[in-house]
Amino acid sequence: MIERLGSGLCAGVILLLLLAWPAHAQTTAEPATVAMKAEAVAADTWFVQGESAIGTPGNQNFISNAGFVITPAGVLVVDALGSPALAERLLALIRAHTSAPLRYVVVTHCHADHIYGLQALKAAGARIIAHTACREYLASDTARLRLQASRTELFPWIDQNTQLTGADQWLGEGGDAADLVLTLGARRFRVRHAGPAHTAEDLIVFDEQTHVLFAGDIVFRGRIPFVGQADSGRWIQALDLVLKLEPRLVVPGHGPVSTDPARDLKLTRDYLVFLREVMGQAARDMEPFDEAYARIDWSRFADVPLFAAANRMNAYNTYLLMEHEAR
Ligand SMILES: [Zn+2]
Q: SS3 sequence, the chain?
């Protein structure tokens, strides 16, 4: 009896626990199954290109780019993609080319689609380098709530096992230099702090040998940029910094590589300039945002992918920024 009661009782307790356990708490080690291929862009240099879209369980949050350079002294990776599973796929692509050790991951900025894969690259031995402004973001409620939401919106690719991963080296920490030269054998990479632009922590990576520049989200290709809380005035300056480096080829944070940076950076630059012009005028005239937005001719950019999804929020954030700048 007691026994029966005992075993019956504990079965009951287990059942209750299972029912109480939130469904998306169970974890999954499913490998990412989206199409991902490493495209060669220069000597020993490859990148993977994510979809120009908003992250969904369907595209497994593969919506951003990452790159890697293989040297005899080890591998440098730029950005970590939008989930641990995607970063595992990236690792497998690297391993298809080399057994050299993973030495560094440079994080261009701490938006979810560029950092949720970091834990997998760290586990593979990489030293993570990011700008100190990223540290503040990772410690913020915004980052915590973003991850929490992603655990539901992007389950099972983002789940309870997905963690925010800090850097091993924070550039600009305590007023230290925010630029760095990374050497791997004879290969030298210039890591430059280009923020605050798209984010406060924007880092770009310039390969002195191939003149390939990994620009992160300073450069969006083939879609309307995500402006968010960006400092668009500094972003335009950052684009000019990129052009001054005279890169032969730019790997953007989103979209295809650019073999004609001057031409291809033009879309992002012109869009930011236009937003500042029209929203700046509206703010100075104290014209209500909705009226201004409806009045403005957006036809120049209306056919660019993700215009419908991103433009209104970009315009509104720029309106607030221009109000602030006008004070
Ligand atoms: Zn971004």
A: CHHHHHHHHHHHHHHHHHHHCCHHHCCCCCCCCCCCCCEEEECCEEEECCCCCCCCCCCCCCCCCEEEEEECCEEEEECCCCCHHHHHHHHHHHHCCCCCCEEEEECCCCCHHHHCCHHHHHHCCCEEEEEHHHHHHHCCHHHHHHHHHHHHHCCCCCCCCCCCCCCCEEECHHHCCCCEEEEECCEEEEEEECCCCCCCCCEEEEECCCCEEEEEEEEECCCCCCCCCCCHHHHHHHHHHHHHCCCCEEEEEECCCECCHHHHHHHHHHHHHHHHHHHHHHHHCCCCHHHHHHHCCCCCCCCCCCHHHHHHHHHHHHHHHHHHHHC
Q: Is the pLDDT of residue 308 over 70?
A: yes
Q: Could you list the residue range(s) of the whole structural domain that residue 321 is in?
A: 265-327
Predicted structure pTM score: 0.84
pLDDT value for 53 = 87
Same domain, 318 and 188: no
CA of 99 to the centre of ligand 1 (A): 30
Q: How many angstroms separate the alpha carbon of residue 64 from the centre of ligand 1?
A: 9
198 CA to centre of ligand 1 in angstroms: 7
Query: 230 CA to middle of ligand 1, Å?
Result: 10
Cα of 173 to ligand 1 centre, how many Å?
Answer: 21
CATH code: domain of residue 160: 3.60.15.10
State pLDDT tens for residues 47-74: 999 998 889 999 999 999 999 999 999 9
Give the tens place of pLDDT for each residue, 187-202. 999 999 998 999 999 9
| Domain shared by 138 and 206, yes or no | yes
User: If you measure from the C-alpha of residue 185 to the centroid of ligand 1, how many angstroms do you get, rounded to a whole number?
Assistant: 31
Ligand 1 centroid distance, CA of 195 (Å) = 12
How many angstroms separate the alpha carbon of residue 111 from the centre of ligand 1? Answer: 5
Distance 2 CA to ligand 1 centre (A): 60
CA of 263 to the centre of ligand 1 (A): 21
